[in-house]
Amino acid sequence: MVSLHFYKYFFEVMSAFGTCGLSLGVTSDISDISKVVLMILMFIGRVGLISFIIMIAGRREPDKFHYPKERIQIG
């Protein structure tokens, strides 16, 4: 059987990732590194998982097309 503490911490993690603002008050009991992990999860949840992965991974292949450049004189 899973301990009740696991569910409390799991709720905190899902709340941080979902950036919904709900808490069970166990954040003050966790270590500083765990708080940093929660902050990172809050950031990823706010930015979006796919956007965060693209930001970290970057572009892999160059563009296959180029827009033409032209200086247009008016008047």
UniProtKB/TrEMBL annotation:
The chain crosses the membrane at residues 6-24, 36-58. GO terms for cellular component: plasma membrane. InterPro entries: Cat_transpt. It is found in: Cell membrane. GO terms for molecular function: monoatomic cation transmembrane transporter activity. The keyword Transmembrane applies. Keywords: Cell membrane, Ion transport, Membrane, Transmembrane, Transmembrane helix, Transport. GO terms for biological process: metal ion transport. Coiled coil: none annotated. It is a multi-pass membrane protein. This is KtrB. It comes from Staphylococcus aureus. The gene is ktrB_2.
